[in-house]
Design brief:
Number of strands: 14
CATH superfamily of the largest domain: Urease metallochaperone UreE, N-terminal domain
Shape: elongated
Helix content: 25-40%
Number of domains: 5
Strand content: 25-35%
Radius of gyration: 41 Å
Structural class: alpha/beta
C-alpha cells in the first residue's frame, strides 16, 4: 500500500460499495494491520493508509470529490489527505469488535477473572505390566504425586487469621490499567497486577502452608484394577486423581498408560495368540497328539496326518479374553515347523533307505502306468 494507490483497492471494495460494506472492509483491514496486533515494521504505515481511505470514502462529500477528481480534487477543495489523523474519525464501534473496549483511549478486554473457578490439570502415569497380567487382568498399587486442596486455609490461599487480605496495589481488582500514547491517541491497556498476580489478594496474607496457591503437593498410593485383555499403549482414566482445582474448580483426572512387556513364548495380535510348534517328519506323515502350551495352560491338540511345513492349526478360544467379556476369547494359532534330522542312527538310516526305495518303486510303477495309458 502507498499514497498513490486507489482508496477502493486499499479497502478491497468495489466503487459501488455501501457505507456498511466500507465499514466491514475497514474493520477487517484495521484488525489485520493495527500496530498493537501486527508487529511488522510497515504495519503502522499500512494502518494509516487504511484509515485515510475509510475516512475519505465514508464521508459523502469527500467521496463525491474523490470519485470525480481523485486526491488532487480533495486538495483543491481544501482537504489535505496527507494530513490525516486517526483521531479524525470515530473508532469506538470498530475497535470494540476486536479490542473489547471503548475508545477515548480504547482498552483491551481483560481475558479472564483469576478468581474464577479453574479446573485442575490432568496427570499421566506410565505403568509397565507383564504379558500374562495384561491377558488376565491384575490389581496394581501405584504411587502418584499430585496437588490436593490445602487444609490449612480451606484451599482459599489466605491465612485464616489474616486481616488485610485485599491487595493494596490493585485494590482487589487483580489487574491494573496503564495508558500510553499511540497513533490512535490514548491507549489504555489492562494487565495482571504484578503484586498479587491477578488474585486481588494481599500477598502478605497468603497461607504459609501453600504460599497462597490453595493447593499443596502430596504423594498418594492408589490401587487400580487393570482389566483382562488390555493391550499395550491402552489408556485408563482414574477420575478426580489429577491435580486439585482452584477457586472451587473440579480436580483433574489421572490417565494411566499401560505398557505390556513382550513374552518370550507368545506373540499377541489383538486378542489372538501365535506360536510355532516343531514336529518330526514321522509326526507330520502319520499325525499325532501333542501338548501345546497356551496362556491358559497345556492343551492337547491333534496333528493331522500329512500336515505340511508352514501349515497352521487353530486352537479355538485359547487366546486372550476380550475386554469387558466374561466368556469370549481370541484364538491360538500354531504354525507347524517340520524338523528334518541332520544326523541319523544306523537303524534310522536303514529305515529311511527302505522308505526311499519303496517310494522310488512306487514312482517307477506310476511312470509305467502312465506310459501304458498313453499319458
Amino acid at each position: 500500500m502507498n499514497s498513490t494507490m486507489d482508496y477502493y483497492e486499499i479497502l478491497g471494495v468495489d466503487r459501488n460499495a455501501t457505507k456498511d460494506e466500507l465499514k466491514r472492509a475497514f474493520r477487517t483491514k484495521a484488525r489485520k494491520y493495527h500496530p498493537d496486533v501486527n508487529k511488522a515494521p510497515d504495519a503502522a504505515e499500512k494502518f494509516k493508509e487504511i484509515g485515510k481511505a475509510y475516512e475519505t470514502l465514508s464521508d459523502d462529500n469527500k467521496r463525491q470529490i474523490y470519485d470525480r477528481y481523485g486526491e488532487e480534487g480533495l486538495t483543491n477543495a481544501g482537504f489535505n489527505p496527507h494530513s490525516f489523523s486517526m483521531e479524525d474519525i470515530d473508532l469506538s464501534d470498530i475497535f470494540s469488535s476486536f479490542f473489547g473496549g471503548g475508545f477515548g483511549g480504547f482498552s483491551r478486554g481483560y481475558e479472564r477473572d483469576p478468581n474464577a473457578p479453574i479446573d485442575g490439570e490432568d496427570l499421566r502415569l506410565d505403568l509397565e505390566i507383564d504379558f500374562l497380567e495384561a491377558c488376565f487382568g491384575v490389581e496394581k498399587e501405584i504411587k502418584i504425586k499430585h496437588l490436593e486442596p490445602c487444609e490449612a486455609c480451606n484451599s482459599t490461599g489466605i491465612d485464616k487469621d489474616a486481616k488485610d487480605t485485599v491487595c493494596p496495589v490493585c485494590n482487589g481488582q487483580g489487574r491494573i490499567q496503564k495508558s500510553t500514547q499511540t497513533i490512535l491517541g490514548s491507549f489504555t491497556s489492562v494487565t495482571t497486577c504484578p503484586n498479587c498476580h491477578g488474585t486481588g489478594k494481599n500477598p502478605k496474607a497468603f497461607c504459609k502452608v501453600c504460599q497462597g496457591q490453595g493447593t499443596i503437593a502430596k504423594e498418594k498410593k492408589l490401587t487400580i484394577k487393570i482389566p483382562k485383555g488390555i493391550d499395550s499403549s491402552s489408556k485408563m482414566r482414574v477420575a478426580h486423581e489429577g491435580n486439585a482445582g482452584r477457586n472451587g474448580g473440579r480436580p483433574g483426572d489421572l490417565y494411566v498408560v499401560v505398557y505390556v512387556k513382550p513374552s518370550k513364548e507368545f506373540i499377541r495380535n489383538g486378542f489372538d495368540i501365535y506360536t510355532e510348534l516343531e514336529i518330526t517328519t514321522p509326526q507330520a506323515v502319520l499325525g499325532d497328539e501333542v501338548k501345546i502350551k497356551t496362556i491358559h495352560g497345556d492343551f492337547v491338540a491333534k496333528i493331522p496326518a500329512g500336515i505340511q511345513n508352514g501349515d497352521r492349526i487353530t486352537l479355538k478360544g485359547q487366546g486372550v479374553p476380550y475386554l469387558g467379556s466374561e466368556s469370549q476369547k481370541g484364538n491360538h494359532y500354531v504354525t507347524i515347523k517340520v524338523s528334518v534330522p541332520k544326523k541319523l542312527s544306523n537303524r534310522e538310516e536303514i529305515l529311511y533307505r527302505e522308505l526311499y526305495n519303496i517310494s522310488k518303486e512306487q514312482s517307477g510303477f506310476l511312470d509305467k502306468m502312465k506310459s501304458a495309458l498313453g499319458k
